[in-house]
Amino acid sequence: MTAEDDKPKPLVKKLLSSYVICAALLFVGLEAVGSALNTYAPQTLALSPYKSANRSWVWWNVRDFGRLTAAPDIVLLGSSLMMAPLHGGDAVHLNSAQNVPLHHKSQLLEDLLQEKFNRNYHTFAFALGGEMVSDAWAISDTLLKGERKPKVIIYGVAPRDFMDSALPSAASTEVYKYMSRIGDLSAVDKDAYSSFWQQGENALSKISFTYKHRPDFLYIQHRWAKELFRKLLGYKELELVNSPYHVRKQAFSELPEDNGPGSLFVDPPGPAQEPYEANLDEYRFRYRKVNLKQFNTQLTFLERLLVLSEKENIRIVLVNMPLTEDNMGLMPPGFYQNYLDKVTALTTSHKALLLNLNDPKIFPQKYFTDSVHLNTRGGEHFFQVLADRLKADPETAAIISQAGVGSNSTATTTKTTTTMQTKLNRAILEGLPKSATVQDIVKLAGPHHSDIGSGLHILTYPLADGSWAMIGSPDMKAIMYIHFQQSEPKSGFEK
Q: How remote is the C-alpha of 319 from its chain's centroid?
């Protein structure tokens, strides 16, 4: 040791030699720079909650809901118990595989209601795996208001939506986490964040710019990485590599959901009976303990949803979803009846309607793929039964009838749109001025046939000679390009 080593270090050197202090200074610097850029030069970071490196089920639904040109007549809410018949029913009805991340409607229900009420309907589904009542409220409070609100909400509920031992709080779900990014849910923080650590994390996100926007920074990192690989390796486009669904399902408990647009398909059933898996151990865990605090909190969120619907003049029809007798037998004594009584009381007090479809005579085990989820034939049967019940009950019949559009007027509109699209040709599109917008094309040819883009809108139009046009737009306003091809364009993620 030299004499130089014995000399006391200046204060600045002492501070800089501390890793903790350096990290703190770096964090403060990032806070200041990030906040300043977001305030004074927002395009530099271009932060948006709608951009995400992790494309969860809810991310795809929110993206495609934002692309609707008009509010849907009916919105479907519910967990995977509604999600399963939605995709399975359409797989049978249309005899085609349904691309789950991109499929957000029930064509089967639309056709059944059109047949029964002689009116046309447009549906949109926010039916998502693991959706709790708090999630259904968060979706509705954030998106289903104002100009985008539906006329009717059909909400499928079950006991697990109110009490799930696998979830520590309402704010723990992927749906709630994402909806809290795009909407202000702070008024219910007391109910949503149950633990001390969750409350602390939520408080930190409100005072720290960096912590609040960590998903946005992850997206920026993801985008920069893709650009770097394109430049270094010459790739024109990079797509996510999807692992098998059962592997991703295992990882969901540890990692954010990440579902590519072709990650999961529901196929039409074959001639044989669909296999049944008794997933009783999973639900024995979910039902293992009666958490009355969680149950009552979710009842509070149901009441919030019902109050919101009254305020927005949206009629709600709750559907008590079918379950197997084996699953019902796992519930603590008296819990199911208590659940049904409380839900019935709330719907009655807020002038909503409840249809109870949990009947083993109507839904025997042959219609289930496991103890709670309907198989594809069960999905078809579910919507057939639901449509019959909606028609048979005078109150629901009046609600559904008023939600539709007269078939004659809609048929005329559809015919006109088709004719206008047929008249559209390549010369017209190539002759558009550089200042032309998507709305200019809509005026010429009516609504687009489909939107097959991911991140960027790619609108498809049939042309008079049988070919197709693809119109790229970043915001449904400006036109980036117009491409042509002979066959109908596909998303590139279809089987």
A: 19
